[in-house]
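U., I forgot to send this yesterday:
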Amino acid sequence: MRPLSSVTAKPMLPVGDRPLVAHVADAAVDAGASELVFVVGYKAEHVRAYFDDEYRGTPVTYAHQESPSGTADAVRAASDRIEGRFAVLNGDNVFDPESIADLFARDAAIAAHRVENPSEYGVLSTADGYATAVVEKPDDPPSNLVNAGAYVFPEWVASALDVPESERGEHELTDVLARLLDSRDVAVVETAYWLDVARPTDLVRANELVLAETATTTGSVLRGLTNGGSSVAVDDTASVADGATLRGPVLVGRNARVADGAVLDGPTVVGADASVGRNAELSKTVLLPGATVGPDVRLHDVVLGPYCDISEDAHVAGVENESENGTAAVVTAEGVGTDGLPY
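Result:
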């Protein structure tokens, strides 16, 4: 995710109107979480500043992981805060909330998703709706059902997190899961949608998934807006000129500005305090907070870093079909926005 991860920790990058990990927290709160524990390390102060000690009425605490030594090590860092049955959710994934609610209703469970290329993930074997085995990145996958990074564990697992290093040199939560599979049934909950946000292209896709769930226009209803059959959300404090055209899904964030003649084709996000100049054309683009797009600029499949400025008449586009999903163009500047993002 570099250079965007020089701005903030990856889970704190914006998806829609809030950080990626806030969507995970929302799903957990909606599913009935009684407490949120964030395992933090790199740029931990950004997470603490956003969530503080309470989020949506749910108590928040923090556990510090000394070094990024794997997912089992991350949970182990929080083990002294665990009482009773507990859930673990990857903070850089996008989950559909309904699946997380289903997961939370089980005594022991793992979220799973069907993909075209399972060899890139941890792959599950199943029988009668229960997991029977998990193998990391196999050359010959036993199924197309992969580990989606969300679990519910019984309490005793909190004292069984000391697993050996894997071939990758990390302490893997999948090895903990394997121990659990040897002792009891573990339900498999298939997600309606899921995304592991690993690359800038995934960040664009994450915004597309989240914007698709925005059912209605929010904030001010302004003249000149069209929804193109999908949602357009405009913050109350944003300014959108009458002559601008927004074809959803589009989100215009807090104090953002969209000038006359600008065309925004979804999925597109104009972050807090960002601006789009006259006659600019944006499609499949994410402007991080404070970014500036000049007049007559054309952007397609682009992530524009915080407080960066694209000059007049510039044309920037990502690479189509370089891989299965193409590659988004990233424009950023060294040393810009390193104090976190204003949401």
